[in-house]
Amino acid sequence: MELQDALSTLGSVQTFHVQDEIHATRENEKSLFLFTEGNFTCIRASDGLVISSIHAPMIYGIAECLRPRGGWFLKAQELCQGRVIPASQAFEMFTEKQLWQSVAITLSWYIQVVTYREEHLIGVTAYVMVRNKLLELNLLAPETRANVNVADYIQERTQLAHSTIMAILGELRRGDYVEIKRGRLMGIKHLPKEY
Fold it and tell me: What are 4-57's pLDDT values in tens digits?
């Protein structure tokens, strides 16, 4: 909250449309983004893998501006506005107002997101990946979930073959573990830990 308040008067307000890509670094320009509303997907630039779904309020771009590598970007999932702040101006203000501890806390949250994702996808079976993504999808609000195709959601976040995902979902449906109608997750009854 402290960082959001400090950044709330810097930079300029910009409108972002559905599917707009938001990059913290472009050519010689580095920017932080302050969002007080909106839903986004965090995408790995090298292959388009969806790392996570993120909801405002949030600050994006600190890590990328400190250590630029163009590793990931945000994609807007709905129309929203955000404040675009030159990184140099933001970093100067962080120093002036002694906010680097708050920056460290914010960055630790991003580390947790990436760690959580790695726990669910690295060194586990295809079934465990699908199971984890079903549980994650089930946490979304019903009205949001109603607009999400289950197989697409899983494939974007795991890069498993579509046929593998459909085979596992088919088994779970036949076993009456999940309810899926017209490609949408209606509910989960119980998911076995192992396939």
Answer: 999 999 999 999 999 999 999 988 899 999 999 999 999 989 889 888 888 899
> Environment class of residue 186 by beta-carbon count within 10 Å: exposed (0-12), middle (13-18) or buried (19+)?
middle
Rounded Cα distance, 9 and 144, in Å: 32
Q: How far apart are the C-alpha atoms of 184 and 195, rounded to whole Å? A: 21
Q: What is the chain's mean pLDDT, rounded?
A: 92
**Which residue reads 């590598």 in tokens?**
69
Q: Where are the beta strands (DSSP E) in the chain?
A: 12-16, 21-22, 25-26, 29-35, 39-44, 50-55, 58-60, 72-76, 80-86, 178-181, 184-188
d(C-alpha 79, C-alpha 155), whole Å: 24
Distance from C-alpha of 157 to C-alpha of 122, rounded to nearest angstrom: 12
Domains of the chain, residue spans: 2-120, 126-188
Cis bond before residue 57 (omega within 30° of 0): yes
Taking Cα atoms as reference points, which of 124, 117, 130, 144 lies closest to residue 173?
130
pTM tops 0.90: no
pLDDT higher than 90, residue 164: yes
CATH fold for the domain made of 2-120: Jelly Rolls (2.60.120)
Tens-digit pLDDT profile for residues 111-139: 887 787 777 778 889 999 999 999 999 98
Identify the bridge partners of residue 185 per DSSP, sorted by sequence position.
180
